[in-house]
Structures are given as C-alpha cells and as structure tokens.
Amino acid sequence: MLDVPSRLPGTIEWQGPEPGRPAADPPGPIGGVDAAIRPLTDADVNAVVAFPLDAWVPVFASFQQVMGPRAFDLVYPDWRTAQARAVAEVCRSGDVDAWVADVDGAPVGFAAVRWTEEDATPVGEVEMIAVAPSHQRAGIAGRLLDRAVAEIAGRGVPLAGIGTGGDPGHAPARALYERHGFTGLPLVRYYRPP
Description:
Domain N-acetyltransferase: 35-194
Keywords: Acyltransferase, Transferase
Distance between the termini: 23 Å
Radius of gyration: 16 Å
Shape: globular
Strand content: 25-35%
Helix content: 25-40%
Number of domains: 1
Region (Disordered): 1-31
Number of strands: 8
Strand order of the largest sheet: 2-3-4-5-6-7-1-8
Pfam families: Acetyltransf_7
Protein name: GCN5-related N-acetyltransferase
C-alpha cells in the first residue's frame, strides 16, 4: 500500500490572518458564476475526489520537472491513485470540516480544515483546497478559503495555516494565499537518488 505523506515535498507553510479579520465574501455569484458554498456531504465525495486530480496535473508536472523523472517516479509512482485516496480520506475524516462550491447542483471546488495544534496553539489547518479546471480563475478558491478562515475564526481558533509547494506549479496557490492575508514561512525538502 502506498503511503500518502501529509505534506508534499518542498512545501511552504502559511500562517493565516488574525481572528476577527473579515473573511467571508457576500453570498451569490462568484466571478460571474452562480456558485454556493455549502458543507460537504457524503454524496459529494466521488465528485470531490475526481476534479482535484485534474486541477493538480500542473502541480505534479512541476514536481517532475523540479525533481527529475527518476526521483519523481520513486516518490510519486502513482500520484493520481495516492491523491485520490488522500482526498477521499480527508472528505471522510471525523476531525475535518469541509465545504464545496456548488454550481448547478454539482461540486466544482472544495476546501477542508483539520483542527490541530502547533506547540500548544490551536490551529485550523486548511488541509486541502481545489477547484475544477473548468471553474478556475472565477474567485471560487478565494471564497472557499474565506469560508474556511471564517469557520476557524468563528471557533475562536487563533491561527489559520495552509501548506503549499514552492515549485512553479503552486505559484497560483501561493498568490491566492498571499492575497488573503497569509504569510509564507519558506521550508525546503530535498531529494536525490543515492
């Protein structure tokens, strides 16, 4: 069985806005798309497992380019299967809250928050966030992120965190997090075949 890491190689940790910062956009159309943010249900899981795989193709292509094919194949021999399993596990986890962006009755984006601690400080960790390629660049990821941060603040949790890669494939994610008030803490993970 393939072990799915909780953090991808070369991740960058992000610490979020202070509690009380306005985090939720008004309901209604998102970038011209009529989308609703709602809690994830069991009926959403299959759709939510499928579209992130398409959304993350550029990320894993970037990983392969940065790492080289040999190291990439050793670390990610079947990334699609591993990521599908990881998304399904997050969606079904009892210690995660998740939301979907719904367009015409179908999920096109999702975000999940895991409740953790860092050195005894409670943290709402945005564990995953993804939007179907067909609905990217419409503000959906920002609305999902705002919804997650609003939930974190609403529970009185003093810190929001999110991890992402430092590779070119994650550049749009880093830009989104910075626009929403997160500050980067650069971390690097190195690989090489022996």
